[in-house]
Amino acid sequence: MLRLEPPCDMITIVPVVRGTSSCPLLWTPTYGCHRELWGPASAPCNSVAEVIFDRGEGELMRRTSDEESLALQHKLIASSAKNFAAMLDRQADAHPNRIAFLTPSGADDEPNAWLPMTFAEFRRQAHEVAAGLMELGLPREGRVALLSGTRTEWIIADMAISSAGGATTTIYPNSGPDEASFILADSESSILFVDSTAQVAKIQGRPEVDAVVRHIISFADDSEETGVRDDRLTTMAEIIANGRRRLAVEPDLVRRMIDSVEPDDLCTLIYTSGTTGTPKGVELTHRAWTYMGQAWKNLDMFRGGDVHMLWLPLSHAFGKCLIAICVEIGITQAVEPRISRLARSLGEVKPRVMCGVPRIFEKIRAGVMTAYPQGRLASRVSRWAFATGRDAQRYRNAGDRVPTVLEAKRKIADALVFSTLRRKLGGIEFMICGGAKLSEQVRQWFSSAGIPIIEGYGATEVGAVAFFSGPDAIRPGTVGPVAPGCLARIAEDGEILVSGPIVARGYHSMPEKTAKAFTDGWFHTGDIGELDEMNYLRITDRKRDLFKTSGGKYVAPQKVEATLMANCPYLSNAVVLGEGHKYAVALLTLEKGALMTWGRRHGRPDASYAELTADPDVRRSIQRYVDRANSRLERWETVKKFAILDHELTEDSHSVTTSLKVRRGVVAEKYSDIVDEMFADENEQSSVARGDDAS
Predict the structure, then answer these.
(1) pLDDT per position as a tens digit, 486-529
(2) Phi, psi at residue 232, to the nearest 5°?
(3) Nearest 5 degrees, angle CA 91-CA 311-CA 330?
(4) What pLDDT does 31 receive?
């Protein structure tokens, strides 16, 4: 019998990452069950200043009171720039020659040169574009949409919109015609930036778009190649030329506008990913971004001149959040839009930090673990090294000194394995994870190699990140404390509430939904969690994603899915369902690259992806991985049956969002026949999980 058995922890990085993501939510799972988790619980935070003896470290640590948090909030507000564009002015004035961006130049399969742009040049170009937008008649808080992938021009255009007194509407570059048209019409965006004229075809001939969009600006002059024609179309170069002419006549034009923009003016309109319905436009003010920059600066995690690898979609709230942080602190952003080249670019740029989503880290780990067949010496050495790293990490997590013998073994492991891994990742010091829950096993794997992953939590409505900690203050199982100067509470039903300058002012043209989600300055996140003794937040699941079995037990599907993903490196997606049934089931998809590699190694080089998913040996191997995952779950959480789909879940099929979050309702409905079949004999179901054919 052939098995899908990865050798575990090989040290070759395989660039298997694909897709884009970002992160309305930054997560970490809580795998233990808490007695009061699903019942009434109240944990008002920060009500009293307490002195706590931190476990194992012998240090006195203090909880922060509400009064102290609010005092810090006032201090950070006073230190913040007046508006988003003013942040750039301050950085460009203080450090004009500091590098703002590194932009790659070269083919995907060749070494690239990285072209620098200083903060002074960044400001100059942004102001020229701003003047060009004002020449087009952009009104105060007038919406300008960006329909583009991640690139330096996106950031320049976004800063220009703020400098001109407008507000940016973000649209994912792979949005379909219906979604793009809806956002343009709903936001009433009069000007549209695109990364290619090919994007224009999505919205042509739509009356609702024609009624609002008056000008279309393309970063690329590629109409001849795409064949797209539109009377509203112009190029970024033409806008810059117009702006220069206007500034030659009125040199202080943009400066006057920036000075007039107030902190509570609308800065960004970001539409939620829509996993549960029609996207909502979240209205974020200038203060939300300027305060976020100050909050991260307050942690002293970054230094001016640090290099950050930026590949996340800028249409997402976390992309905008990163821009604000980098501009405030003076961090260099290496802008890499080519996900397939990310691993190689890390080695070229050698950033200090990179942000990602769980699927990226899972793919890197899975690529390492499945790189070589089991039994080779290198595999055994690697397995020993990661086991040693995990043992040492347990002592560090507890605040205890690592025993001398174990520390000596860890140093040998670092020399043999971990140093190579870190070198392939460009010598990166730490990473930041967002978008969904990161498995504890995956976090621990990277941590063992000396690459800590910071996990935080937030949502678009709180500027992407509301809870976070520094790399030296990570408490495993938590997402850190609330942002400096902000407040957090846990409602009686376990819902997380957040208050502070980072909270959005509401939903665009949705007063009823605004009133429901934003009450008395508190944003209701819709997520379940708890605060520990130091006010570090533990996340369990989306409130609306919880399902209840017919036996009355609540199941957090994302926890189960994360456990499946961590224990089976061949999975690309897992969707757990079970509302009203006796047990939970899962729809699984497999990582195509790893699966095809397995086929070649086992004498089936010509087998298709669909054929391999139906292979009995593959299915038996996946069953063993599911059994392993089940052993880490509570009895009522275990997956009793699973089905392997013969194709992956894609954005094109609307099964996942652009940030790679599964649209659970869409998937459940689309594959209802398969799901129903897994529940057909639930009255006679076995206590042992069984794999069913779904090809």
Answers:
(1) 999 999 888 999 999 999 999 999 999 999 999 999 999 988 88
(2) -85, -5
(3) 15
(4) 27
Residue type, 351: P
Last residue of a domain, one of 324, 354, 384: 354
As a residue count, the chain comes to 695
Residue among 176, 207, 171 nearest 187 (CA): 171
Sequence-distant (6+) residues with CB within 8 A of 197 are: 218, 220, 222, 223, 226, 228, 230, 233
Q: Which residues of 192-220 are buried (b: 16+ CB within 10 A; e: fewer)?
A: bbbbbbbbbebbeebeebeebbebbbbbb
Structural contact between residues 329 and 352, judged by C-beta atoms closer than 8 angstroms: no
What digits encode the pLDDT tens for the residues 247-270?
A: 999 999 999 999 999 999 999 999
- Output the DSSP codes for 234-285: EEHHHHHHHHHHHHHH-TTHHHHHHHH--TTSEEEEEE---SSSS--EEEEE
Of 87, 304, 278, the C-alpha closest to 179 is: 278
Q: Do the Cβ atoms of 65 and 48 come closer than 8 Å? A: yes
The CATH number for 652's domain is: 3.30.300.30
Domain range spanning residue 107? 83-354
Q: Is 682 exposed, middle or buried (0-12, 13-18, 19+ CB in 10 A)?
A: middle
Quick check: is 130 in a domain?
yes
Question: Which residue do the tokens 């069913």 mark?
Answer: 692
CATH number at residue 88: 3.40.50.12780
Contacts of 375 (CB under 8 A, 6+ apart): 7
Distance CA(463)–CA(284), nearest Å, equals 7
Please give the structure tokens belonging to residue 382.
Answer: 């690697």
Distance CA 185, CA 179 (A): 10
- The dihedral built from the CA positions of residue 317, 320, 326 and 331, taken in this order, carries a sign that is positive
Last residue in a domain, options 309, 328, 354: 354
Structure tokens at 434: 């967002």
Q: Considering the domain boundaries, does residue 215 fall inside one?
A: yes
- Which pLDDT value is given to residue 16? 30
| Any domain includes 303 | yes
Residue type at 665?
G
DSSP H helix total and E strand total for the chain: 24, 28
Q: Which of 214, 145, 152 is nearest to 173 (CA)?
A: 145
Predicted TM-score (pTM) of the model is 0.76
CA distance 134 to 15: 43
Residue 580 maps to a domain: yes
Instruction: Count structural domains, the chain.
Output: 2
